[in-house]
Write a structure and sequence with these properties.
The structure holds 2 protein chains of 2 kinds.
Chain A: E1 2-7, E2 13-19, E3 22-29, H1 35-50, E4 59-65, H2 69-86, E5 89-94, H3 95-101, E6 109-115, E7 120-127, E8 130-139, H4 140-148, E9 154-158, H5 166-172, E10 177-180, H6 190-197, H7 217-226, E11 238-239
Parallel strand pairs in A: 1-4, 4-5, 6-9, 9-10
Antiparallel strand pairs in A: 1-2, 2-3, 6-7, 7-8
Helix pairs in contact in A: 1-2, 3-6
Chain B: E1 8-13, E2 18-25, E3 29-37, H1 39-42, H2 50-71, E4 81-87, H3 91-108, E5 112-116, H4 117-123, E6 135-140, E7 145-152, E8 155-161, H5 167-177, H6 185-192, H7 216-231, H8 238-264, E9 268-272, H9 279-290, E10 297-299, H10 303-306, H11 310-322
Parallel strand pairs in B: 1-4, 4-5, 6-9, 9-10
Antiparallel strand pairs in B: 1-2, 2-3, 6-7, 7-8
Helix pairs in contact in B: 2-3, 4-11, 5-7, 6-8, 8-9
Classes of the chains: A alpha/beta, B alpha/beta.
Chain lengths: 240, 346
């Protein structure tokens, strides 16, 4: 199986190709903000380097969330159009599960967390590939309480710059051994997305949307003001 | 023309709150047009919320691409190029169409064309009738109020522009004061036809020696009139208020546009954008142009082509196709893209 994977969920853009269980291309452009401009050329570079065409790809995989809202849409729009037009599989992989895989060999609880500002994180905790705290939007204090209640002694954090939270995290997890992932282990990599995509079930491109894990502030404000329940997103869009 | 091969363009438009796809043949014939509107969603907030708009665009993009091909009864093999609006508009919203179009271009190997949204709106006229150049357009919407001179199918210049609010924006803002739901234009237009111009709101810049507009003073005068009446417990007639507001808008748009037509002597006059659907404005422009000594041919696109739609993008893209004006896979959104100003712009 040939998998082309992409990650645009964080500030690091990456594309990977995995052929029959082997990673044959992986490239990351770190700390850049213009994924929409650089993604397609990077895909073309990967195809050129592996001698593949898009038509030869069996499965398009993407980090589907959480992450930067605009970034997620750049990756998913691209992946779902490719899958839809070429009639191939589309697979969405949890951004946090892919991040956690960076540290999976270390026999510890891995907490993958993306800084969502104001002491909030998009986070999930994994033992290997098993989610023990579901992907969600958590206040740091609540997240630490949940981790502290788990039996795991060793905890690794990955996915963000935790420098300014390090003291609060160590205090909240007193008694546990806390470390922070370094270098590329702290970055979302398309290679991990491709690896997880191998065994994941494909999703329908027409139904696929990013897993934002948060509605917009405007929607929460509207709900607070009107007391009304949200309808399905599709109920708000009409073909005319 | 019949001997030459037909050129089919599949176009995407997602610059604001409509996601649209279309197949256009030879820049003039709509073979399919799909428009998914988010009006019901943004009505909750009283205006377009950019993040919500982007979220809706990505929900429907693959589905409406398939529908555009199916409705036109063609496959990708019948398509010659892919076109997309790349600005101006909401950046996150534009990016959905752009990334969809680029992915489609990679998947099919078809050339990619980036289209200016405003040139698209104006070129919608090409779907109705042949445009003779030089042509002139009055482009009025929630985001723009411009008089545009078109020297040929791909060279457009602004000769008049709004200094502050767009005309459509002013409609939405006074609509809020009258308790009319967003978008307010249609209701205000209907009320205006049932009332009289009794309030004499200001006609800003109407006598100035340029083709520019200003609507913020009118908006303030309107709001002050309503607030003052509220304070003294007086109830104003909403039909007369609407008629007075609309008369002020239409007076200035018509006066300046007619003066520009007299100076530049275009062979075709086009009215485009959401506010071009306004009946008061249509009636007035028809009347004034008919009274000219040497009237240009007038093209008023039907209502469906006045709002945001991908067919207009397919029409404009065809003109660029003929000139070999193609984009590459690095095509990016340009949210504040502007047409150039004419050399004699005052």
């Amino acid at each position: 199986m040939k998998i082309l994977s992409m990650s645009t969920a964080t500030s690091d853009l990456s594309v990977a190709i995995r052929q029959d269980g082997q990673l044959t291309f992986a490239k990351m452009e770190k700390n850049q903000r213009n994924h929409s401009v650089d993604l397609d050329p990077l895909i073309e570079e990967g195809l050129k380097e592996t001698g593949l065409t898009l038509k030869a790809i069996d499965r398009f995989a993407v980090a589907i969330g959480p992450g930067s809202y605009t970034g997620l849409r750049v990756g998913l729009t691209t992946a779902k159009m490719l899958a839809s037009i070429l009639g191939k599989d589309l697979v969405g992989v949890s951004t946090l599960k892919a991040l956690a895989l960076n540290c999976a060999g270390r026999n510890a609880l891995v907490v993958a967390a993306l800084d969502a500002r104001n002491q909030n994180f998009f986070a999930g905790a994994y033992r290997g590939q098993e989610a023990v705290i579901e992907d969600g939007h958590y206040a740091l204090g609540d997240l630490l309480d949940q981790i502290q209640a788990l039996p795991d002694q060793e905890v690794i954090f990955t996915g963000s710059d935790f420098t300014k939270y390090a003291d609060a995290i160590k205090e909240g997890l007193a008694g546990k051994q806390v470390t922070f992932a370094e270098g590329d282990d702290n970055l979302l990599q398309a290679g991990q997305v491709a690896l997880l995509a191998e065994k994941a079930a494909p999703i329908d491109p027409d139904q696929a949307v990013p897993n934002y894990l948060r509605r917009t502030q405007a929607e929460y404000d509207w709900q607070k003001k009107t007391g009304q329940a949200f309808e399905a997103d599709s109920a708000y869009v009409e073909e005319v | 023309m019949n001997k030459e091969k037909d050129i089919r363009i599949l176009a995407f438009e997602s610059s604001c709150d409509e996601t649209s796809t279309s197949v256009v043949k030879n820049g003039s014939e709509i073979e399919s047009l799909v428009v998914a509107t988010q009006i019901k969603s943004h009505a909750r907030f009283g205006g377009v919320v950019p993040e919500v708009a982007s979220r809706h665009h990505i929900e429907v993009i693959t589905q409406i691409t398939k529908e555009a091909l199916a409705e036109a009864k063609v496959t990708w093999d019948d398509i010659d190029a892919i076109a997309v609006t790349h600005g101006p508009g909401l950046v996150g919203a534009l990016l959905i169409g752009i990334n969809a179009a680029k992915a489609a271009s990679m998947a099919t190997g078809l050339p990619l064309i980036g289209v200016d949204h405003i040139m698209g709106h104006i070129t919608a006229a090409q779907l109705v009738d042949k445009i003779e150049y030089p042509a002139m357009a009055l482009q009025v919407s929630g985001g723009h109020t411009e008089i545009v001179l078109m020297k040929d199918p791909t060279h457009f210049e602004i000769v008049g522009d709004t200094r502050d609010d767009a005309a459509g924006e002013a409609y939405d803002k006074i609509g809020r004061v009258l308790g009319v739901n967003y978008p307010a234009g249609k209701t205000i237009d209907q009320w205006a036809h049932q009332g009289k111009d009794t309030f004499n709101f200001p006609r800003a810049m109407i006598d100035e020696d340029n083709y520019d507009f200003s609507f913020s003073g009118l908006k303030s005068a309107f709001i002050n009139t309503c607030h003052h009446a509220d304070q003294i417990g007086e109830k104003l007639d909403k039909y007369d208020l609407a008629a007075s507001f609309q008369a002020a808008v239409v007076d200035v748009l018509a006066a300046k546009t007619i003066r520009a037509i007299k100076q530049y002597q275009p062979k075709t006059f086009i009215m485009g954008g959401g506010v071009a659907a306004n009946l008061g404005l249509r009636e007035r422009m028809d009347q004034e142009i008919a009274a000219l000594a040497n009237p240009p041919k007038v093209i008023l696109p039907p209502l469906k082509l006045c709002g945001d739609n991908a067919a207009m993008i397919g029409a404009a893209a065809y003109n660029q196709y003929l000139e070999g004006d193609f984009a590459d896979l690095r095509l990016d959104a340009d949210p504040s893209m502007e047409l150039p100003y004419a050399a004699d712009y005052k």
